[in-house]
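A reminder from the course coordinator: this example appears on the midterm review sheet, so study it carefully.

Given structure:
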């Protein structure tokens, strides 16, 4: 199960209700990431070949950030069946968030992996809707971002979303096309959370690492 598929969080504990929204979502997200990544650390992810444009450095690649992106509130709420265009992690990174009818939140880069046209949410296509690139009829699965039709060579990069106790929707991190969740976490959060990075054996952070990044 993806982080983006976590059910909405419940009511905050009385003391948590006193925290600032930013602090609360950061704490919630950290717990979610830790729990989730303990699982995905044992699962290898497949790597897809990079597109020619990206490989040549011609196109801006979504999630080119190496450090930890700041959590960003993208909506005060998002109802089932609604979608939202936003930018994350940078102002050049176009993205789309969708709340599926069962409550699942999903987020993706809105830049097609074929020739970088804008990807659109189409609720009227397929049983749950689809992400469509109208330039060459590229289609991406709404739950995974995998290519289901057309010429795009790679899945859409994902944006990890979560919801705070007040219903606010936050963007927390990115997962590049073809990147597994562990590598995505290491790329963005290892320096900030060295103990967790050691548990996940991120490059430069051994299992007995001290967080200096010099163990490997
Ligand atoms: S640019 Fe999206 S399918 Fe060609």
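Designed residues:
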């Amino acid at each position: 199960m993806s982080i983006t598929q976590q059910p909405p969080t419940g009511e905050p504990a009385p003391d948590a209700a006193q925290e600032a929204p930013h602090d609360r979502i950061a704490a919630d997200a950290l717990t979610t990431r830790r729990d989730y990544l303990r699982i995905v650390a044992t699962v290898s992810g497949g790597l897809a070949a990079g597109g020619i444009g990206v490989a040549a450095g011609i196109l801006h690649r979504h999630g080119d950030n190496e450090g930890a992106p700041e959590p960003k509130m993208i909506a005060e709420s998002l109802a089932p069946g609604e979608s939202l265009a936003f930018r994350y992690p940078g102002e050049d990174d176009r993205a789309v968030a969708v709340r599926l009818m069962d409550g699942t939140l999903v987020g993706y880069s809105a830049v097609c992996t074929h020739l970088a046209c804008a990807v659109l949410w189409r609720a009227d296509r397929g049983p749950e809707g689809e992400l469509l690139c109208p330039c060459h009829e590229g289609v991406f699965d709404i739950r995974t971002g995998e290519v289901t039709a057309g010429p795009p060579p790679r899945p859409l990069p994902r944006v990890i979303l979560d919801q705070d106790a007040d219903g606010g929707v936050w963007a927390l991190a990115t997962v590049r096309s073809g990147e597994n969740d562990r590598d995505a976490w290491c790329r963005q959060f290892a320096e900030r959370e060295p103990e967790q990075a050691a548990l996940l054996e991120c490059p430069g952070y051994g299992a007995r690492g001290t967080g200096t990044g010099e163990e490997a």
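The radius of gyration is 17 Å. The CA atoms of residues 69 and 89 lie 6 Å apart.
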